[in-house]
Amino acid sequence: MTTTASPAPSTPRPHRVAVIFGGRSTEHAISCVTAGSVIDALTSAGYDVVPIGIARDGRWVLESRDPAALRISEQGALPEVTTDGTGLVLAPGGNLVALDAGDLPAELSEVDVVFPVLHGPWGEDGTIQGLLELADVRYVGSGVLASAVGMDKHAMKLHLMAQGLPVLPYAVITERTWETDRAAAREPVASLGFPVFVKPARGGSSIGISKVGSLEELDEAVELARQHDPKVLVEAAAVDARELECGVLGGFGHDAPEASVVAEIVVEGDHEFYDFAAKYLPDEGSRLDVPADLPDDVAQEARELAVRAFDAMECEGLARVDFFWLPDGRLVINEINTMPGFTPSSMFPRMWAATGVDYPALVDRLVRLAAARSTGLR
């Protein structure tokens, strides 16, 4: 099967792009790493880049344009936004206003497009998208609804199931049920069989996830997940399945979304699943096969399901759809990520590079797509 990306849109190129990163979620550091790569690509392409960091306490600051400051160090230290920089607010029309202590706000610049590379709650979940819609600013990626539903794994499964798309069996543990009737919370989990995976319902980057082999191990795993989200998703394990991913691009207006080649995550070494260390730390046990070694019909089915999921969620711009290919031959959707990791070595850009759109062209295309889209209802 041959997969070829369509030409980039002919939208007039915007001039100034604000990259927003960091944020209040547990994925703060990964957002910073993604931002460093995006800033580097945009700067190299000649865009006027305004780097905006959101500190862990929610304050917005003007950050350095140096991408090196946003990389994971050789010792594994993760980057972080501090509050040392000039404070910022975003005003209607895309005007950035600097807030220097003791001074009246002063207009800093007007941005044409915002590239939000926030991961997790308070950013990827529709909150920053709603703010940008209110400010009448064009931005890269999905709107409020798709971002919110995509962030909540429970809501996402309900949405996909309603559209006839396949997902794994699951149970949800809410804060109220866990605090008032743990026996009732455990009952639907036991009916799934073991092993299961216990996850924060609105988390990402494999943070707070545990593989649980028995009911006796459940409480500890739930408490770990609850450190990141009071709502917990418990999912039946896809035993002996292969983990596949597919990127989707486009989807504005009358333009049909396109799927990339399909890739595979192969977890090696001591890792039982694709956890945080296997994803992001050097020399850890995982391998990304791009493209995956698959029968043509399986790859084609994954690409078609990815586009169906993208449309079902009303996504825009970009998304990564993750699958399990079960031993019985079925493909089921694990999740859809509306702002996937975006370093050159991340799966989404690598899949598109293998499809014929390299990293600089991919970043440029997403900015142009955003510039062509209106704000408000569409």
List the keywords.
D-alanine-D-alanine ligase activity; manganese; 11 helices; 5-stranded mixed β-sheet; 378 residues; single chain; alpha+beta; 5-stranded antiparallel β-sheet; peptidoglycan synthesis
What would you say this structure looks like, in words?
The longest helix is centred in the first third of the chain and has 17 residues, at 28-44. With 378 residues, the protein is of the alpha+beta class. Strands 3-2-1-7-8 form a five-stranded mixed β-sheet, sandwiched between helices. Strands 15-14-13-16-17 form a five-stranded antiparallel β-sheet. A four-stranded antiparallel β-sheet has the order 9-12-10-11. It is built from eleven helices and 17 strands. Helix 1 crosses helix 11. 30% of the residues lie in helices and 25% in strands. The radius of gyration is 21 Å and the shape is globular. The chain has helices at residues 28-44, 127-134, 144-151, 153-162, 175-180, 182-192, 218-226, 276-280, 296-312, 347-355, 359-372, and strands at residues 16-22, 48-54, 60-62, 87-91, 95-99, 106-110, 113-116, 138-139, 170-173, 196-200, 210-212, 232-236, 242-250, 258-267, 286-289, 317-325, 331-337.
